[in-house]
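ARCHIVE CARD
Drawer: 12
Card no.: 0347
Subject: one protein chain, sequence and derived structure
Cross-reference: see card 0346
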Amino acid sequence: MKKRLVALALVSLVFASSCVNQSSGVVSTSGSEASLSASVSSSSSGDSGSSESSGASVSSSAGSSSSSSSHVSSSSSSGGSSPLPVGSYWEGLVADGSVYGNDFRQDLKDIMVKKGSSNGTNSYKALNAILSKSDTNGTGKVMAFYRNNEATSGWNKEHTWPNSRGAGENKGYAGTDPQVIRPTNSSDNSSRSNFMYAEREDPSAKATASTGWDPAAFGYEGARGEAARIILYAATRYYKVNLSGAGGSYHGNASGMELTNNLTDGSANGTMGKLSDLLKWNREYAVTSCERYRNDYLSGEIPGSGYDYCRNPFIDHPEWADYIWADDGVRKTPVSSVYVSLEKSTLSLAVGDSATVTASATGFHANDWAAVSSAPSVASSSVGSSGLVAIKALSSGSATITVTGQGDVSKSAAITVSVTDPMDRWNLVTNASSLVAGRKYLIGSSGAEGSAKFLSTSSVGTYYQGIADGEIGSGLSVAPTSDMEKLVLGGEGGSWTFKTSVRGDEGGYLACSGTDHYNLVTGADPSLYKTWSVSIASSGAATIKNVAIDSSYKRYMEYYAANSEFSTYSDETSVVYLFAKTA
């Protein structure tokens, strides 16, 4: 126990700035609990429910569990399978997926009611002092929900679950629970009204009941995840609680708080949503340091906080929301296992094509993703923080891309990518050791404005630009046009030849004819220097140098941008590249 208190004390020093600016990554190390320095408005805008409740009496059953659960067991296993690690607070919870839907919700609620004895004991007004400490930035300033920056001097209290939709303001209900109420700029509170939460293409656009209101309306997308986990909490902690005594502007039903996808559901139903978006945000937006601090502070995990409200289980284990709900309502099937899934297991692409595939985690919260291709020269892969996998087809063949989600556990799923090449495709050469006599190659360079220029068949003495899209340095393959010269490599390392299609078998070799820099020619004259050494950097930049007895003819093959031509120079003036025909 002493070690735990020491550890928690250290945590309190590091995270005393409970709601920090996530975008800046700055965390105050001040351990003081500064008093409220912002002026707290005595009235609240919109539907925050600022008016003090009349203190109406509440049934003693309001905050209690409606029934005892048979799924919370002191045993470490259920039905022969071990549950997931849940930590000492949630000890005994069967979280192996065999308990789901409202049964799992009831199990969570039973623990929350048992351990959160402060819930329902404070008044709505008392939240001012609580929030000034749970939502401080460590410098005595209160942080505004939705914005993740310092609140204005007239902040008020935002019902994330609106007063009029069942939160109320009387003791014992969600409207007096600091896990549900957040400090917010008064004007922001007013703009939200009592609309449900929903993701919008333009979060800042004027909201209506039918569109819902986006917590990212003020530019901080992380508010979506934070708001989602609060609503999921309220729908669990106040599940089956009789809301008829909730007070404030709410005069509702006795069925408790529920989630819906119907944005225009009447407020008297005591519902909130949009369910599918809440679940999506909970998966996509990682738990923040602000959420963790508030959870620890309000539940008394941080020594000296003086509170023992119940913890928000979806901050501890975001994946548990998917144990209770599916996108269309309360879950009706068990979570059979903990796994990562991809929306498809196979994918067919043509060279040059791109695709995205979504990865998702079931039974755990993946806060870090990785994607590895078994054949990166065939198909490259990358994955974002939300599990969106980007795949690029580079050359013909097959590649297995393994996507791993890492969080409470680590799980993987794989997709097989088949890449075909319907066109004449040529790949960038990045290693001279891969050069093969008898194989065809293109010689190219980056011309004006980054366009790709290739040695052309249009001239014999001097070679002009071919046609290709894009910049050579940024692409790994090209599809040549008919006027781009395809050279057959001959000879061997250190003394290569490049045979063209312009001349016959005897004379069609690239050669260096003299000291003048306009001297890249083809011909059969033995005096012409037609052999070349080739070295290639890992970036693909090639050095192609004429092999000559006379040192004055040892020149580099280059691209002369001013005249749009390939030629030879006494020193390196521009980078050239080799592209090899795919097998």
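Annotation on reverse: The chain has a mean pLDDT of 78. The CA atoms of residues 87 and 146 lie 30 Å apart.
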